[in-house]
Specification:
Layout lengths: L12 H11 L3 E2 L11 H12 L12 H15 L9 E4 L2 H12 L5 E6 L5 H7 L3 E6 L9 H7 L4 E7 L11 H11 L5 E5 L19 H4 L2 E6 H4 L8 E4 L2 H11 L8 H10 L3 H5 L1 H15 L6 E2 L7 E5 L8 H12 L1 E2 L1 E2 L12 E5 L4 H20 L1
Parallel strand pairs: 1-11, 3-4, 3-5, 5-6, 6-7
Antiparallel strand pairs: 2-8, 7-8, 9-10, 10-13, 12-13
This protein binds 4'-deoxy-4'-aminopyridoxal-5'-phosphate and glutamine.
Length: 386
């Protein structure tokens, strides 16, 4: 066997929890995916695109029609002019785009600042390229970034800072002031930014998503990353895109052209036709906020205590009033004894920090959420008797 490039890496928590959830026929509120039907209009657009012959290789950077539609959307939402020919690449999902961005710029020994809890692909993506993750741990319940601390972690070797807002798993968001603070830190340095904005359309309580695309100095050194799976409730489609200034996009495309080369053509054509209707993605926040509130209301009598969620598919719940178990053990118990799956937040920390927090995905049919809440409450009653 060759020496592993990622010796410390095992199966992702999403695979582990989904497998257990299936084994015990639990309700899966772990991995983030909707369980309701996606938009039929988009399905028709994609079907029509196949029938119309969009079945051969797309342009390596992506369908120009789709890139033009994305550029228009960015101008409307973030007020920034992005060249569809040289500053957008369509990718097989956002995870792929994050990996490609990191691979295109990280050399062995380069330091990358990553905030924990962190989406689980960031650290392995850095390590596989020989980079050195510099981890900054955020503290609940608000998980705010202390930018003075970030400044103190910057060294001559810092090459990249990865941000994610709205944030998975905590559901927190970055405000304009955060992006201005980041912009000031990276000014006149060689530091680049990967901004994971896959939940751009999912913010709650009248909060507005702040994109690096709205801050010209920041955008001049950023890769901004998006996922259509999150925009149109079709996570299994695995189609996303990266937006970056032309000089960075050139490097991104060098890696992309020898990896996927291009993304499936009929989905791109279907999306290009469907994207015109902004009402679809602009209504997402309202629909999902209702789901967040519906689920937390169902759990109002529960000992699980919600932390604030201002965006994403997720809300964290503190279970310390029910159990003193480690997060992974309590998550397993919830699957086997209650029949509900959730993700232990410790999985988003390299050192597996335990804070008695589980991440629940509330992007489900009301009937699913009702059933899950009933099971949780029944489980709590058995705990009280024991
Ligand atoms: N970034 C974050 C923060 C995510 O939660 C996810 C997963 N949904 C992704 C990236 C990956 O998106 P995709 O499924 O398009 O690869
Ligand atoms: N982004 C999804 C989540 O956080 C999972 C993606 C995956 O399974 N890798 O639940």
């Amino acid at each position: 066997m060759p020496e592993s490039k990622l010796p410390a890496v095992g199966e992702t928590i999403f695979t582990t929890i989904s497998a257990l959830s299936n084994k015990y026929t639990a309700i899966n509120l772990g991995q983030g995916f909707p369980d309701f039907e996606m938009n039929n209009g988009l399905i028709k657009c994609v079907y029509d695109a196949m029938k119309d012959g969009h079945n051969q290789y797309a342009n390596s950077g992506g369908s120009l029609k789709l890139r033009a539609a994305i550029s228009k959307k960015i101008l409307n939402l973030y007020g920034s002019i992005v060249d569809p020919n040289h500053e957008i690449c369509i990718t097989p999902g956002a995870t792929y785009a994050i990996y490609t961005a990191i691979t295109s710029i990280i050399h062995p020994g380069d330091e990358v600042i990553i905030f924990e809890p962190a989406y689980d692909s960031y650290v392995p993506n850095v390590k596989v390229n020989g980079g050195v993750p510099v981890l900054i741990s955020l503290e609940g319940p608000d998980f705010k970034i202390d930018w003075d601390k970030v400044k103190s972690k910057v060294s001559a070797r810092t090459r990249l800072i990865i941000i994610n807002s709205p944030h998975n798993p905590t559901g927190t968001i970055l405000e304009g002031a955060d992006l201005l603070a980041l912009q000031a830190i990276v000014k006149d340095t060689n530091i680049l930014v990967v901004s994971d904005e896959v939940y751009e359309h999912i913010t709650f309580d009248n909060k507005k998503h702040q994109s690096v695309l709205s801050f010209p100095d920041l955008f001049s050194r950023s890769f901004a990353i998006y996922s259509f799976g999150k925009v149109y409730n079709c996570t299994g489609w695995k189609v996303g895109y990266c937006v970056a200034p032309a000089k960075l996009m050139r490097e991104f495309l060098k890696i992309h052209q020898f990896n996927a080369f291009s993304t499936n053509s009929f989905v791109q054509e279907g999306l290009a036709n469907f994207l015109e209707d902004s009402a679809q993605y602009l209504s997402l926040s309202v629909i999902l906020q209702e789901k967040r509130d519906f689920f937390s209301k169902l759990l109002s009598e529960s000992q699980l205590k919600p932390l604030p969620s201002l965006g994403t598919y997720f809300q964290l719940y503190d279970y310390s009033a029910i159990s003193a178990k480690k997060e992974i053990d309590f998550a397993k118990q919830l699957i086997t004894d209650a029949g509900v799956a959730a993700i232990p937040v410790s999985a988003f920390y390299q050192e597996g920090k335990n804070q008695s927090l589980l991440r629940f995905c509330f992007v489900k049919k009301e009937s699913t959420l009702v059933k899950a809440a009933e099971r949780i409450l029944a489980f709590e009653r058995t705990c009280a008797v024991l």
